Amino acid sequence: MSARPNPANFKLHVPDGAFSNGHHAEPSALEGALLSNAQLREQVTQLRNALVRTQRDLAGTRAGERSARHLARHDGLTRLPNRAYFEACLQESLNEQLAHQRGLALFFLDLDDFKHINDTHGHAMGDNLLQIVAARLNQSVRKEDMVCRLGGDEFACLLRGSNQVRQLMQLAAKLFDSVAAPCQLQACELTVRPSIGIAICPPCDITGSELLARADAAMYRAKREQTGYAFFEAPA
Question: Which residues are designated catalytic?
Fold first, then answer.
């Protein structure tokens, strides 16, 4: 009887550099594959970083565009909409009014003797007063209304959905009292009186400049007659 091999003494001999299927390993090819994989991961990381930078730059560009658009539409001193932006919104509201007849009115405000304040207390004090007047006007109207600084000491209020005389009189009195309330600036207490002209949008077609001219004419009548506010009256 032949002796059985002892399993403990049995060893599988694989020559160095060879696999069980007889193929030899190629260290250079494996190293190349690993290097290529590492390079690919590095490229992906670089692309992701570039994407993050691009998104950040794009967000900054959009923020800059929004800021530039805001500056182009608003007055630098009072932060209210400026005349150009206001006139565009006014014309748009007039087009809607013509189509839907929901009511529209325009207030034109001028500060009486404002030049005297500038001459007496200086332009810096006058600018502070304009900022206070702007804030008071903005706080006295509804969210759907619009207050702008036309220029100098002139302001306008666009009142959407409003054409009732009594309601407009009440608002004009409220704006007058708000603006005319004393202002404490440094050691000075200043008081400025507004003159307010009111123009109600007619049912017929009218341009923004025409409605603004009507409110302006009413404002001069209020200033001339010292009534605080006045409505536009068409010539007989």
Answer: 153
